[in-house]
Amino acid sequence: MKKYNIQHNFEFTSIITLYAQWIREGKLKVNSDWNKEMGIKFTCQDPCNIVRKTWGDEMADDMRFVIKTIVGEENFIDMVPCKSNNYCCGGGGGALQAGYPEQRRAYGKVKFDQIMATGAQYVLAPCHNCHAQIEDICEHYGGHYTVSHIWTIMCLAMGILGENERTYLGPDLQNFGL
Amino acid sequence: MTVPIELDELDSEFKAAVLEKVPAAKFDLCLTCGTCTGGCPASDLFEMDPRKLVRMLVLGLDEEVKKTPWAWVCTMCARCIKQCPMEIDIPKLVYNMRNSWPREKRPKGIRNSCDMHIRSGNAMGVPKEDFTWTVEDVAEEIRETQPQFKNLLVSVDRKGAKMVLNQNSREPVTEPDELSPLWKVLHLVGADWTYPSVMWGGENYCLFLADDEGWRYILEEFVYHIDNNLGAEMVVNTE
Question: Is a pLDDT exceeding 90 seen at residue B11?
Fold first, then answer.
């Protein structure tokens, strides 16, 4: 909208900012008790478009606040580098549909190695491009992590994730809380 | 015999054309330090990297710059400009390289998604009616099967809702059950929200296609619908 100088009356925000705000205000009652004993480890992908290119580290920090709240601070491991300095997953800019899969995967090797170095079982990727690419490179390079949405883990943490809403959970959590 | 390059005689038409659109791109200020290239996962793909690309541009190798498929494997992630001491705008250069390809020669996958977005408001080409039907169907099932959410309210084009949410078109098309976790969160916090029926797809393939006209059209339609038909205070980009 800025690019084309299109005027608008609404405010533009991200669901991640709102998750963080609702948790801080006490409206969203969620915690990490469910993961205390299991200690499942999570990392997250900072999508270039919402972090580096739009809202910066403030967004990255909100995202970490939300994720640490729902999985436990001790169960969150950041990639290096991260936040505004994060590596793109290699699926952005239309790469998933550009017709150069070999190059796209070579690009994604950087991200794959970064993820594997965290040892995390789950990668939370709040962007559909990142999500699809990180899943694809996992399969391609023989990784063992699961890519999930924040909303999935958030509902899991609150005990309200339905049986049919578990496409993006690994076998370890398929039946958890049912 | 080697011939020295006469810098004063260089004809860098493409550079001039990009600079006219993006005056702040500052290609001539490149120090050739290579910070961009060192931190770019697309370096070496198609034997290209960001520093080399800027050199080629400055030296007027216009045809080579305009035809390299590297334009489509660089993701315009902007890590290069973020690190660049001179803030050379390589992502905008790549955008304009993409834009210089005849539209019909740009990657078909991206082009089709952009075309569908222009036609139907989302990259997967879901008609408005189907979107509304899917959303209502999934919501009804939750109300019936999950007592805690028997009052779950999900709507499309509800006038006066405080928030409008966009939605990636993958869920309604291929995995509708993935729509509902977010709805439950919104329900629990008492959010007053709706989906728009116009340009509801959260994705943006016209940007990736470097289709200025298409991208602008999508945004204008979207903004008009929100401001004039729905009157929402806030637009929320979802996961």
Answer: no
Name the amino acid, one letter, at B228. N
| pLDDT tens-digit series, residues A136-178 | 999 999 999 999 999 999 999 999 999 999 999 999 999 999 9
Helix axes A150-157, A15-24, angle to 10 degrees: 20
User: Nearest Cα to A16, choosing from A7, A54, A33?
Assistant: A54
Strand bridging mode A122-124 / A146-148: parallel
Q: Smallest CA–CA separation between B62 and chain A, in Å?
A: 22
Q: What backbone phi and psi angles, to 5 degrees, belong to B63?
A: -65, -45
The minimum CA-CA distance between A76 and chain B, rounded to whole Å, is 19
C-alpha gyration radius of chain B: 23
CA distance B142 to A160: 11
Q: Do A158 and B182 touch (CB under 8 A)?
A: no
Report the alpha-carbon distance of residue B1 to residue B136 in Å, rounded.
Answer: 74
pTM metric for this prediction: 0.95
Is residue A13 classed as helix, strand or coil in its secondary structure?
strand
What residues of B are in contact with residue A92 (Cβ under 8 Å)? 75-77
Cβ-defined contact of B237 to A109 (cutoff 8 Å): no
Sign of CA dihedral B186, B192, B196, B201: negative
Taking the C-alpha atoms of residue B24 and residue A15, their distance in angstroms, rounded to an integer, is 32
- Give the pair of three-digit tokens for residue B135: 């959303």
- Token pair for B217: 């059209």
Residues in chain B within 8 Å Cβ distance of A151: 181-182, 185, 239
The H or E element containing residue A43 is strand A42-44
